[in-house]
Amino acid sequence: MTMTEGPEPTAAAQALRRAQIAENAASASYPPSLWNFATGATAGTPGTWTPGGSIVPASPAAVIAGTPRVIVASPASNWTVGQYVQTLTAGAPGQVYWNGTAWVAGAHP
Questions:
Q1: Is residue 88 part of a domain?
Q2: Which one of 30, 70, 83, 88 is CB 3.0 to 4.6 Å from 79, fit for a cystine?
């Protein structure tokens, strides 16, 4: 019996799987220190998560709540119009930006 590979998963399916992995990791019995969660975000359109290759937060609510890790904004000053980072939540509902003092859902107005 031979095994064949199936079709490539869609981008939406891949994003959903990453969100499930992040959610499972956050609620797993293993401590967060054993997971490679993002700890920083750099402004852009979209911005980037740091360190590279880390597990991106599941949603803006997770970033705002600081779970599973607090995210440090770069720059630490108020981001400019249109800047944001994309969480694992697809589209505009998954965008979050730094206003100089706190994380806010959406792209910077």
A1: yes
A2: 83
Is 65 inside a domain boundary?
yes
Instruction: Give the separation between CA 100 and CA 63, rounded to whole angstroms.
Output: 14
Q: Considering only CA atoms, which of 16, 17, 56, 14 is closest in space to residue 35?
A: 56
- Whether this model's pTM surpasses 0.85: no
Q: Is 68 exposed, middle or buried (0-12, 13-18, 19+ CB in 10 A)?
A: buried
Residue 33 confidence (pLDDT): 64
Does 15 reside within a domain? Answer: no
Give 10-32 pLDDT, tens digit per residue: 777 777 777 777 666 655 566 66
CA separation for the pair 28, 98 (Å, rounded): 28
Domain count, the chain: 1
What is the 3-class SS of 9-71, one letter each residue? Answer: CCHHHHHHHHHHHHHHHHHCCCCHHHCCECCEEECCCCCEEECCCCECCCCHHHHHHCCCCCC
